[in-house]
Design a protein that fits this description.
Elements lengths: L1 E5 L3 H12 L3 E5 L3 H9 L3 E3 L2 H6 L6 E4 L5 H10 L8 E4 L5 H11 L5 E8 L4 H4 L2 E5 L2 H6 L1 H7 L7 E5 L3 H29 L7 H8 L8 H12 L15 H11 L5 H12 L6 H14 L7
Parallel strand pairs: 1-2, 1-4, 2-3, 4-5, 5-6, 7-8
Antiparallel strand pairs: 6-7
Length: 301
Amino acid sequence: MELGLIGLGKMGGNMAERLRHGGHKIVGFDFSTEAVQRLNDTGAVGVNSLEDLVKNLQAPRAIWIMVPAGDPVDQTIAKLKPLLAKGDILIDGGNSNYKDSQRRFAQLQPEGFNFVDVGTSGGVWGITEGYSMMIGGDEAVVESLRPIFETLAPTADTGWGRVGPTGAGHFVKMIHNGIEYGLMQAYAEGFSIMHSKHALDLDLTQIANIWRHGSVVRSWLLDLTADALKKNPTLDGLEPYVPDSGEGRWTVFEAIDLNVSAPVITESLIRRVRSREDDNFSDRMLSVMRHEFGGHSMKKT
């Protein structure tokens, strides 16, 4: 099957490679000439314009967009539309807000274009492990893309599926990432407690590897944690700064809108935000209040 791919960064480039090995014709575009050349070097077709991308695909075309969420997706779609024909399929495989996906579908459908949202998980490991894909869209359109999903997934019948109408794919991926926030925070806190128990001289790398086998807390995330600790057991040279892609925030907002209690995910998001505060005013306020009501000592710079 043919597929146009827009965005040849680490994840997009790896996806192109996996698809090429699966026997699909891949035509890729990126603003980076180096990324386009890397794709050409693999035996796929790299082009330098959206016009050339569309020309190199037979109708009905399927074009997978892997660009940052928000305006870049809208801009890409706007530039593509004059080049496409009715019946062509646009696939957003990035981390878009599900409400944006619903809006894009509502705008594109009357014009004769199909739109599918694919929440994609797997990161840089997807090229070897396969990608988990949560798909939203018209059932017949999703089914027409089955060869693509079967190739990208861990196996043809695992790790992917249509989870609902347009928007459902990115909604489920949003919740997936919210859960990921909570899991990461729990691991981080547990290892931090063990790291602080100096009297026992615990080997965190050893413990992580013990937990990987037979333990109820084993996971791929723990596997990656064990590998990271092996490379840098004391995490030397790392700043305690944790960014977020936005999906954790959207998950918390959705929980509030639905009156669903989600304290673990919410707190894990707040911890990430706090990690970016070089000079935490809240903590200084707490110190001042303790001093005022109880005469407790304060540390001063």
